[in-house]
Every structure is written in C-alpha cells, then in structure tokens.
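Example (one chain per record):
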Amino acid sequence: MRVENNRCSKTNSSTETVSGERGAGLSMEGFFRGVLRHRKLVTAIFVVLTAISLACVPMVKIDANMSDYLPPSAKSSQDLTEMKRVYGNDITNARVYVTGISKTEAQKFDDSLKGLDDVVSVTWLGDEVNMDEPLEVQDQGTISDWYDGKGYLFQVVLASGTDQAQVDQIRSMAKSLSGAKTVAIDGSAVDDAANLATINTDMAKIMTIAVITVFVMVLLNTTSYLHPVVMLLTIGVAIILNMGTNIFRGTISSITQLVASVLQLAVSMDYSIVLLTNFGRFREKTDDQFEAMVMAMSKSLPVILSSAAVTFFGFLSLAAMQFLIGADMGIALAKGIVCSFLSITLLMPCILYGMRNAVAKTSHKPFFKSFHKMASFCHKGAIPAFVIALVLAVPCLIASGRVSFTYGSAANESPTSQVKMDGDIINKAFGESQTWAIMIPEGEWSEETELVDELKALPTTKQVLSYSTIAGSALPTQLGDKSDVSQLLSGGYSRIVLTSSIPDESKGAFDLVEKVRSICQKHYGDKYRLVGNAVSYYDIRSVTSSDSTTVKLASILAIGAVLLVMFKSISIPIILLMAIEVSIWINEAVPYFTGETINFVAFLVIDAVQLGAAVDYAIIFTEEYLARRRRMPKAEASIQSVEKTAQPIITSSSILILACLGIYFAVSSPMIQQVGMLIARGALISVIEIFFVLPLLFTGGDGFVRHTSYKLGFYQGKGEGGNVSEAPAEANGNEA
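Predicted structure:
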C-alpha cells in the first residue's frame, strides 16, 4: 500500500506535530535555541574573529617552489640542504639574454647585476675567456655558449624568495644599456616569481567567477532574492577564517592559496542548501519562524555533520602523501570544512532569522517547481547507464594509471606569459639547458678527474666546471683565485658544475639523472651530492608515483569508516563508494585518451576533491531514499528520492561545474586550468552516476542492503521483504 506524505496545516497542532519529531534531539534543540536567542552575541563573535583573520591574511607567506615540498627523506632534498649549508647559495636559477650591446656594456651589466642585493652570483662570457683579446681567435665552442653574435647570455643565481619586482628591476637595467634591443629572462626563480605575481590576479578572477555563479544558481533554486546574499556572506566569513588561520602554519603553497578558497566555497554550498531547504519546509508546518529555524537547525545537523565529516577526511587524506604539498593542501582544505561547518550551523541561522522580514519581502516564486519528469527519465535510463559504467570501469581504471605528468613550475606558465616567451627566445639562441651541481669529497683529485672526464663524455654535456678544470689539481688551493676557490671548494667538499643541453622536464632529463647518479655512485658511493631542477623533479615523480594509490586508499578507508558509522551499514558505504570511484576513474582516464599531459598536483587533488564532493551528493540522496524506503516499495522510493533531491544536488553540483569551467577559461595558469576542468568534469560525471546508477544499485541490491544494515525497517508490501515500518509518513519528516 502506498503511503502519501500529507502537508500539515499551519496551525498550533502542526507545531505540536513538529515538536513531536524531536525525539532524541532535545538536547541539541536546546543548544540551538540558545544560539538563536543569543544571535547578536554569536554574530559579534564571528565578526571579531573574521576581522582578526582578515588582518592576518596578508601576513601568510606563499611558496611557489615545489621542490621545497619534497619529503626530508628524498635524496635531492637532503643534497640541496647540505649544498646550501656548505656553499650558502643555490645553483644557477635564472638566465638573462641581452642583444645589441657591446662588450663594454656587457661588462657594465655584469657589474650592475653583482651589485644587486638579491643576486648571489653572475657568470658570463667574461668569466670564461679573455675579453681583451678578439673573440674570433678564441675557442668558438666556449664563446657560442655565451654569445650568439647578437647578444650575451648571463647565468645568474638569485636569492631564495626573489619576487617579480626584482626580476623587473633586472629587465629595466638591461633595457637601459646603450644599444640594448631584446631582453629575455627565464629560469626556475623567474618562473616562481611569475607564479607568485599572478596569484592575486588569478585569485580575484576565481572568486569573482565563483561568487557570480553561486549567486545566480542559488537565486534560481531558492525562493528569495536575499537567500544567495546570506549564503555568500556566511561562506565568505568561513573562507576568511580559514585563510587567516593559515598564519599559524607560517607558509602555504601557491597552489593551496589559489584553489583552497574556491573549493571551500563550492563544497560548502551543500551545507547551506540543506539548512535553507529544511527551513523552508518547516516554515510550511508552522507560522512560528523561531521554531521553524530551531527545527531546521536540528534536522540539518546530522546531514551537514556527516557530509562535512566525509569531506573533511577526504581532504585530510591528502596528508597521507609523501610529497608534502599533500599535507599543505589537505590541512588547509580540511580546516576550511571545519570553518564552513561552524559558520553554516551557527552563524547562518542567526543571519537568516535576523533578516526574516527582509527575506519575506524579497521572496519570489521558485523557478524550478518539479523534477518529476527528470526522475522518470533517470529511472528509465538507469540500466543503460549502469551497463555503460560497467563497461568503462576497468579500462578507465587502467588508463588513469598511465597519464603523463608535469612536475615543475615552468609547466604552469601560460604560453603567452612573458617568462614563457622569454624562455623560447633564449632556447632558440642557445638551446635548452640546465645546470646541476655535484658535491664530492675534496682532495681526491684523481677520482675527481675521472668523474669529470666521464661527465664530459656524456652526449648532452655542454660544460663541466670544477676546481681541477680551471686551476688544475696540482695547483695548491692557497694559490688559486679566491672567488673560484670559495665557489668550488668549501667545507671539505669539491663542487662540480654540470651544464647539459636538455630541458628540465623530459624523459631524457630523467634518464640523465639516473646516469649521473650512477656515475657518481661508482666513484664515491653515497658520499656525493647532486642538485638541480630536473633532479628534484625526478624525486618528485618517484615520491608521487605511489602517492596516488596512498591517497585513494586513505580517502576510501576514512570516508568508508564515516559512512559505516553514519548509516550503521556495511553495504551502503560499499555501494556509495563503488558508484563514486567509477566516476573518478572515468574522469581521470580522459587525459590519457586525449593525450593530454597533466600537472601531477591537479591529478592528485581530484581524488580527494571529487570523492569528497560526490559523497555529499550521495549522502543527500541516500538519506532521502532510506526514509522513503521505510514507507514505500523500492522502485517508488527510488524515483521519488531522485525527484526530491534533484534541486539541492543540481544546485550544488552546477555551482561547482560552472565555477570551475569559468576558472578554466579565465585564469592564466595551466595547472589551475587543469584543476578547474578536472573538478568540473568530475562533478558532472558524479552527478550522472548518482542520479542514474546509484538508485539502481540500491534497488537491485535491496536485499543485500537489508541484511547488512542495522534496523533499517524497510517497507514490506507485496513482493517486498524486510520489516514493516509502522511509522506514518508524516512523522518521519526526513525529506532533506
């Protein structure tokens, strides 16, 4: 027999019915009553905390160098730390190319560069040959590395933390030289400076797109023009609290700075939509808006808490990565969920209730009144969708493990950016190159000579510089040039500088890392140190190769445990995670089939983000389905659950999809574009899975769910198994 859910009239008896639904939630209701009664105090506390956090935001340091997030156990990380300790500086991290200038102007520019506070050292043609002699009579191989007939190349070591203003200063100095025509500057330090410089611009674009998207979508799916204002204000407070409290962490990565806020905004919308939906439903049951808000707060808490918990642990699973960028992002995102949870469950009801009269005056009719046709369509298309998902699952899982990645900051530069175009100019003139440094024990001259000879013999080698090559191993160090000695001999180490004609990120570069390490290992065992961009990227690749599996397992286990406790069921977590994981595999397989190279951070983030967001949608559907399944047959419960949950799920997911698509088209960083596209595509695939496949999994596995769950009390009619639920539909009240 079908049980209809009749609307309660707006009478005092209705209020009593609502009050009768409280049950075990009386203590929580009392707490929420206290919050609402003291709403001015609660609001004041949030205002003070927000003001303090806002003042702290500019003091949070941003780090754009991915190498800084290598785990301490990584060899390149240990080697870099030791090299900085011994020599006090890094290796070449910038190249400056100036055309149209004379030898005199080039010498003048060299002196000017060395006089800058942020320049550690400069190397140019004048350090390699005698500039007083005609260049035509000297070694042309050496000269071609530094002078191409049009201009001079300067290799510079910039201090850590060099910003765009300092790079611009170098550019201005070069342009001011007599006869200067083209000035091009590239290098890892310049890449990092450029990435940091674009953060504020990209952040402004990201948040503008997100705010507009939220406003429009919430406006279309609620009943007042002020609802999106209240929601944005509440989540805006949560975002400021999260960003400000990053000061306690000292430094965060540029990637975290860019993506954390928009992800917090998009994911948190679920919680505010649940609260707003429940408030609207309880207002239909009672004229007392205070009681309606208290009941909405009590009713929403379990759903919001469970959704926040699974998202929290999904984000926190990133901290399981060996690569420390995972912990950096995971902690920031998880902290953001806590801030959003507190703001939406405590602050938003106070604002919404305080503005109740203004909200009522700005009310409008809902733009989307019914999703019945959509629910019927999803029901009819469930089996074809399930078959498609089943066919794609395994091939997509395999393909997702074969995607090509980039690791360095250079890959995050737009093709139209200044640093990218400058790099193309320099590479055209002198070829792609990178400089590494090798530290070996000092004084073992015969062994060092053999090592140098083997390095010179490598087909990619452009130059090998060591004390023995410039002074000769027989020359006592006391008689050598002091600047040469200090740069090449220090702290019991001899340093060799290897310059190779190879790009930072390529199979050839990674093969060269293995080859050079093998050569050094042969001569010095574990006593050598090797530092360079490609060396760091090689270790990042090695570390992150297992991180993807680690993040997947950590997020699945953590979220599965929360779902197990939440639903008191073994089968429900399995069903939810199975449906969502297939959608993740499909999303991650797309770059492989399209031949796209993805930044590894973007790819790792999507595991936690898509899983966390999709589980929110799945929980909303599952809560509704279980409530209706207690009152009606499974097929009817499935169709009605899709109909009732379509609005909140579509509202939230459309915000995520449209905002991330906007980010994809608006920002300049290819990595952030990739994050945007992955999240947008992942949200779309997840919603399709939840509306088409998840209902079929529940109805098809109805018996499995009943026998592996604690006291579900499913409806028992003709052809139905399980226990009879005698509770009337009106008393259940679980529609949110």
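Caption: The chain has a mean pLDDT of 83.
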